[in-house]
Design goal:
Elements lengths: L8 H6 L7 E4 L3 E5 L7 E7 L6 H7 L2 H17 L2 H4 L1 E4 L15 E5 L4
Antiparallel strand pairs: 1-2, 2-3, 3-5, 4-5
The structure holds adenosine monophosphate.
Length: 114
C-alpha cells in the first residue's frame, strides 16, 4: 500500500499547477475530462482530500466527504445527460488493477455502447 504522494498528477491539478478540462467542482470533489479518453465521454471524478485509493478513501474520509463525493459523481452523470443512455463507473485500485495515478478517482465512461 502506497502512502499519499502530494506531487501526484491529480494533486497538482487540484493545486492548479496543471490545467484540466473541468466539468464540475464542489467543496469536496473535482471532475474533469480524461486526457486519453476511452469513450466519447470519459470523465474522472476525484475527492479533494489526499486519498490513494478507494480503500483508503472509505477508511479515511469522513461520512460527509464520502457522501458529497458520490453525489458529485451522480451530478456529473446528469450534467452529461448520461442516465438515459447509460454509463459505466469504475475505479482501479492497486497493482492488479493497474492503477496509474495514486490519488483516488472514478472513471465515468459513456456516449457509446460499452
Ligand atoms: P488509472 O489510475 O489507471 O485508473 O487511470 C488514470 C487515468 O488518468 C488515465 O485514464 C489517464 O489517461 C488519466 N490522466 C493522466 N494524466 C491526466 C491528466 N493530466 N489529465 C487528465 N487525465 C489524466
Amino acid at each position: 500500500m502506497h502512502s499519499y504522494d502530494s506531487n501526484n498528477i491529480f494533486a497538482r491539478i487540484l493545486r492548479n499547477e496543471i490545467p484540466c478540462k473541468k466539468i464540475l467542482e464542489t467543496e469536496y470533489a473535482l471532475a474533469f475530462e480524461d486526457i486519453k479518453p476511452q469513450a466519447p465521454i470519459h470523465v474522472l471524478v476525484i475527492p479533494k482530500g489526499p486519498f490513494v485509493s478507494i480503500d483508503d478513501f472509505i477508511k479515511g474520509a469522513t461520512s460527509k466527504e464520502i457522501n458529497h463525493f458520490w453525489h458529485a459523481v451522480g451530478e456529473v452523470a446528469r450534467k452529461l445527460k448520461l442516465p438515459e443512455s447509460g454509463y459505466r463507473v469504475l475505479t482501479n485500485s492497486g497493482r492488479d488493477a493497474h492503477q496509474e495515478v495514486m490519488h483516488f478517482h472514478v472513471h465515468i465512461l459513456g456516449g457509446r455502447s460499452l
